[in-house]
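Problem: given the chain below (232 residues), write out its structure.
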Amino acid sequence: MDMKEFFDRLSVDRSNWRDVFSACLGKMMCVQNACAERVVRNEDWNVDLERGVILFDTREYPIQFIGSESKSSGTWLWGWENINQFPDSLIRLAGDTRKCGEVWQLEALTVDEFELNDIFNGHNLSIVACGLADGYCYYRCPHEVGAFFVGISDVPDEVFAPVDLPRFVSVVTQCIEQFALDHRIFAEAFLLWNRTPYEADGDALIAHFAQDLRIEFERADDDLRIASIATL
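Solution.
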């Protein structure tokens, strides 16, 4: 089951940025943590855009150019705008993300350039671009006047491996503290990606790890928010 199938199962409003971001976040936090451990490994990076690869030490991986942040203008520019005349093969992921945005009428994925803020920035946009796709982590490549973001493929399978109970709880706690989310969509999409069986129990989810986990929600205005998370 891929992310778009998760959206169908969870009735995600594809025109709502928060819903889409919430559905992608758990997966990509785990992927990015594993990417740091197994791909980056605290090594210096070098990008060869002509060849479409990134190197960490001597390890080489194919990339997709997602987009760039500019310090001077304080804006994000999607890769499909292609001001650098990259080959189409290098901006395919950005183009696929735009196609999703056009079908879903999701403005953040279809407007080529806009101001950066806490919600719309290179990290969050890359989380969605790579979260909607299969087989990508991403990397921020800083330079003197900003940074560009690349999706990385052909990485070890372990980068996309499910996480255990302690790691799951750690990621959930970190995400709900750091981001504005739909907590129910976030938790269920994370469990689906993690291939963890679960069922609903009123305003709670019971997830079947090696030890069962209960995620309790409470109503806040029109939202369900995580009130507690504990093993059974």
